[in-house]
Amino acid sequence: MNINISSDIKSAQKKLSRVQNKQIPFAASLAINETAENANNAVKAQARKKLDNPRPQTVNAFRVGKRAIKSRLRCDVFILDWADEFLRYQIEGGVRRSGGAGTGVPVNQRLNKYGNIPGRRKGLVKKANQFIATIKGITGVWERGHYTKSGKFSGGKKSAGTAVKLVVAFETSVKYKARLPYYKIVNSVVASKFNRNFSFALRRALATAR
Q1: Which residue of 68, 119, 176, 180 is most buried, as measured by CB atoms within 10 A?
Q2: How does residue 38 score in pLDDT terms, banded at 50, 70 and 90?
Q3: What is the per-residue pLDDT across 51-73, written as a single tens digit (0 to 9) for each?
Q4: How far apart are CA 62 and CA 83, in angstroms?
């Protein structure tokens, strides 16, 4: 999910001398990069406010791409691929349908302060006695084990037991409402910041021109 920030500097060129015009590409590159940073910082700030207690890694997934230079007056703001897979639903809304294993929804699980299952960043099946199956009409991650005399489930050394416990259930689809107006934020920052950034960069470029 990328947004391109570029500029049309023809109007500025008409008002400057030939010597001054030589500094425009450099000033434009500085302004584009500064505006991209402004936009990305604004997105991060709004993500902290509008998303439900997002992890720091999620907020930091908003990035600024390759910087503009005089010969390439373009800079992108984007989202890292791993976060784009789920953030697009927070940005655009829509229905996220399960594929194969489905969309994991925690069941009777201790969650961390970000609403996620602790230690499950690299997949839902974490132990040798856990498996994905449909049991009694419920598809999800199940764990083999046994129940102790006190009625507590244990999946420890005696994991060959015939008892099973549901760890994570899979929903066939989850409907999301758009919560983070990513494109609106970026476009608004570009509209409000670029001209000011360009004017400042051009004054600095002209002051240091040789």
Answers
A1: 68
A2: very high
A3: 988 989 999 999 999 999 999 99
A4: 9
Provide the residue type at 33 as one letter.
Answer: N
For residue 58, give both structure tokens: 């999620």
Q: Which residues contact 97 (CB under 8 A, 6 or more apart)?
A: 103, 172, 173
Strand partners, 144: 164
Partners of 6 in the β-ladder: 74
Q: Are 170 and 98 in contact (CB under 8 A)?
A: yes
Half-sphere exposure of 160 (CA within 13 A, CB side): 0
Q: Which of 127, 128, 136, 125 is nearest to 100 (CA)?
A: 125
Q: Is the pLDDT of residue 115 over 60?
A: no
What is the model's pTM? 0.69
Consecutive H or E run containing 96: strand 94-97
CB 183 within 8 A of CB 153: no
The CA distance from 97 to 172, in Å, is: 6
Query: Can you tell me the distance from the alpha carbon of 49 to that of 43, in angstroms, rounded to the nearest whole number?
Result: 10
Residue 17's contacts (CB-CB under 8 Å, 6 or more residues apart) are: none
Asked whether 144 and 159 are in contact (CB, 8 A), the reply is: yes
